[in-house]
Amino acid sequence: xxxxxxxxxxxxxxxxxxxxxxxxxxxxxxxxxxxxxxxxxxxxxxxxxxxxxxxxxxxxxxxxxxxxxxxxxxxxxxxxxxxxxxxxxxxxxxxxxxxxxxxxxxxxxxxxxxxxxxxxxxxxxxxxxxxxxxxxxxxxxxxxxxxxxxxxxxxxxxxxxxxxxxxxxxxxxxxxxxxxxxxxxxxxxxxxxxxxxxxxxxx
Length: 203
Known about the structure:
The chain is 45% helix and 11% strand. The protein has helices at residues 3-15, 30-56, 83-88, 103-113, 127-137, 149-161, 193-202, and strands spanning 91-93, 117-121, 140-144, 165-169, 180-181, 184-185. The chain has a four-stranded parallel β-sheet with strand order 1-2-3-4, with helices on one face. Strands 5-6 form a two-stranded antiparallel sheet. Helix 1 packs across helix 2 and helix 4 (103-113) packs parallel to helix 5. Residues 1-28 and 31-66 have low confidence and may be disordered.
């Protein structure tokens, strides 16, 4: 894109013929000369930088390329990836499962922000709302278990059937929220065995 301007700027830098830009039209004042000099220097620098960048771009054969990305690199070991890959890696916590967030409004906000994943507390009554979010914005959910394996799997299957499932999680922050499983409750100061047993059986 800069080839024509680059040549013009380089010519001005080499020959010092700034006045050729305004032949016989505008008085060539010291202030105008200074302005034109900066413009020509900028063109020279742009051309030099562009050449340096082009010469630095390499494609090492032994460097793995992220799926969906091109092999072009600007620095060794740093692989360029599409913006969509970044967006696919981002998500937000919603509270539809707690009855706090409106599914439709949550979906619209996520679509506006370009976010594609959400995380929510497992609640069978929230499944229709999560499906609404998926239908409106194409987002997928990572659902936290409600400590009932059958219920958790049922929610997961419902979301999976509509391609709205991202993942199923174990208990959330068991150090802050005790987990009760098979009649036993975890305790920060004594045991996390109920958490471990729930994780084992869920996965």
